[in-house]
Automatic annotation (TrEMBL):
GO terms for molecular function: transmembrane transporter activity. It comes from Gambusia affinis (Western mosquitofish). Its main location: membrane. Pfam families: Sugar_tr. It comes from the Eukaryota. InterPro entries: MFS_dom (IPR020846), MFS_sugar_transport-like (IPR005828), MFS_trans_sf (IPR036259), Sugar_transporter_CS (IPR005829). The chain crosses the membrane at residues 21-44, 157-174, 181-200, 206-227, 239-263, 269-287, 353-371, 383-404, 411-431, 499-519. It is a multi-pass membrane protein. Keywords: Membrane, Transmembrane, Transmembrane helix. Gene3D superfamilies: MFS general substrate transporter like domains (1.20.1250.20). This is Major facilitator superfamily (MFS) profile domain-containing protein. The keyword Transferase does not apply. Residues 88-524 form the Major facilitator superfamily (MFS) profile domain. The keyword Membrane applies.
Length: 570
């Protein structure tokens, strides 16, 4: 197991087999990318005001005046109250004219009524919703506004909790029963429940089905990432994990705003969201199981058969013995003891790495989805804003790929995250007066957060050993779902100060930078296969410490203690 990558060098890094795996796995990533922004468009809350029934027999002047105008920086009609309809009806019948301001002049033939003196009531007859962007959403159909507004972020929370649960369950199943069944099981969950939510008759039913939809969303992406990282080696693995998969994921995300623009009904949109998953069914016969995982489970013959088939596809000759029996026996012996989620906290070294990665994934996900939810508060066309917000992911992932090829993981992540944090913090100086500059800073912040996110995926996969890699990745994704679960509530902070959500997002990005300082470097190092082979965590690592000195200290650390501290001197 220790020499797995050397054992498969005969395959090369970019033959027909690797190309097929690369493109097929990228295609299996489309369903999860296409569904991720569903929480934005299905739960969109259009502008609304109290409905004035047609049978009220009000003059047009009084229909317009029935909704109070709130002045808080910019005048806008009240969303949750109206003047008492019976009183307004009587005044309209008397021929009175509404007086919006005390100094407003009205015709002498009409008695004037000062609107601020009238009593107000709630929206007893429901609401009228703007159809500028949406014909119907979950919010408009089930009236999740005003006194029921608390259900909006709760529904988003339930969706992300579904993702959290899916990460936990899929990670354990994948490390125990294989990558391939979990991958296509996640895709099936996405398609089945995307269709099911379209027929939800009430908000409680929708929420339950939305939770089930969340189960497959991030689990699908994680398994694709792990499968590609284990089948591909060398430069092709970096190309897949840092550029290929993220690019296809981002492109599929860009498709949903365009679809939502064309299909304005949330039920029809939900049905369309099931299509990419159904289209992936034939790919079952093109995606193999991970030979690295098979070997880690002691299934030597299956792993060799798969690699010999790959050698035929690449038109290269496989050695008579790919894995030497002593190595295979040792790998099988190691795996006789089944690993579990608790093994991520078993030793001091893996515990330090795991806890830091959990917090980094939490902060990055909260920043990512907080940006998405906060976009609704910005000026401009909603669909165009979200298209730009997803389109900026393409150059972000390209930048993360370039960084993954040439620069250390820690330096790359810290640089990108710091760029995103500073851009988000600068928004507080531009938001009120410079909408175009604010939008540019938001996109720059998203670029930094996403490029850092792309690096941290690769970084986490390289830090995690094969025997528990999917569980480790899924546990990190669980904490990212915790971060995404709190992100809808970041928007609620705007009730106190409109800049508060953006400041919080910047601080969260800075938190990720701070934590990354204390992780070991994995640049150009072989993937660990066992927990004992994991790089040693360091309390602080200086950029000017030589690689030779670091390797010597790491060798001493593995012999003596699970964690060491390097003191920098100039």
């Amino acid at each position: 197991m220790q020499d797995y990558e050397e054992s498969v060098l005969f395959l090369g890094t970019w033959g027909p087999f690797q190309k097929r795996i690369f493109f097929v796995l990228c295609l299996t990533c489309v369903p999860c990318g296409y569904n991720i922004l569903s929480v934005i468009f299905l739960l969109a809350s259009p502008p609304h005001h109290c409905d004035i029934p047609a049978h009220s027999n009000l003059s047009q002047e009084w229909i317009q005046a029935s909704i109070p105008v709130e002045v808080a920086g910019q005048p806008e009609r009240s969303s949750c109250s109206r003047y008492e309809l019976d009183l307004v009806r009587n005044l309209s019948a008397m021929g009175a004219s509404p007086n919006w301001l005390q100094n407003q002049s009205v015709p002498e033939s009409k008695p004037e009524v000062l609107l601020s003196n009238l009593k107000q009531e709630g929206c007893r007859d429901g609401w009228t919703y703007s159809e500028e962007y949406f014909q119907s959403t979950v919010v408009t159909e089930f009236d999740l506004v005003c006194s029921e507004q608390w259900k909006q972020p709760l529904t988003s929370l339930v969706y992300f909790l579904g993702g959290l649960s899916g990460c936990f369950i899929s990670g354990l199943i994948s490390d125990r029963f294989g990558r391939k069944p979990v991958l296509f099981g996640s895709i099936a969950v996405l398609s089945i429940f995307s269709s099911a939510v379209a027929f939800a008759p009430s908000w409680p039913v929708f929420t339950v089905l939305f939770f089930m939809l969340g189960l497959g969303q991030i689990a699908c992406y994680i398994v694709v990432f792990v499968l590609g990282s284990e089948i591909l080696v060398g430069s092709s693995r970096i190309l897949f994990s840092s550029l290929g998969q993220p690019f296809v994921y981002a492109f599929s995300m860009m498709l949903l705003p365009g679809t939502a623009y064309l299909v304005r009904s949330w039920r029809h949109l939900s049905l369309i969201m099931a299509v990419p998953g159904l289209a992936c069914i034939p790919l079952w016969w093109l995606v193999p199981e991970s030979p690295r995982w098979l070997l880690s489970r002691g299934r030597l013959q299956e792993a060799e058969l798969l690699l010999r088939s790959a050698a035929l596809e690449n038109q290269v000759e496989a050695p008579p013995v790919i894995f030497l029996p002593p190595k295979a026996e040792k790998a099988a012996t190691r795996q006789a003891e089944s690993v579990s989620f608790l093994d991520l906290l078993k030793t001091a070294n893996i515990r330090h790495i795991t806890l830091k990665l959990w917090l980094i994934w939490f902060s990055m996900s909260a920043s990512y989805f907080g940006l998405s939810f906060s976009m609704s508060t910005l000026y401009g066309n909603l669909f165009l804003n979200y298209f730009l917000l997803t389109a900026v992911e393409l150059p972000a992932y390209f930048a993360s790929w370039l960084a993954a090829r040439s620069f250390p993981r820690r330096l790359s992540f810290m640089g990108f995250s710091l760029l995103g944090a500073l851009a988000l913090l600068f928004i507080q100086g531009t938001m009120k007066s410079y909408p175009t500059l604010t939008m540019s800073l938001v996109l720059l912040g998203k670029f930094g957060v996403l490029a850092g996110n792309g690096v941290v995926y690769t970084y986490t996969g390289e830090l995690s050993p094969t025997v528990i890699r999917n569980t480790a990745m899924s546990s990190c994704a669980m904490f990212s779902r915790v971060g995404s679960s709190v992100s809808p509530y970041l928007l609620e902070m705007a009730e106190f100060n409109k800049l508060l959500p953006w400041i919080t997002l910047g601080v969260l990005s800075l938190l990720g930078v701070l934590l990354c300082i204390f992780l070991p470097e994995t640049f150009r190092q072989p993937l660990p296969d066992t927990i004992e082979q994991m790089p040693v965590t360091r309390w602080f690592t200086c950029p000017w410490v030589s690689k030779t000195a670091m390797k010597e200290e790491e060798k001493i650390a593995k012999e003596q203690t699970p964690s060491i501290e390097i003191i920098c001197t100039t």
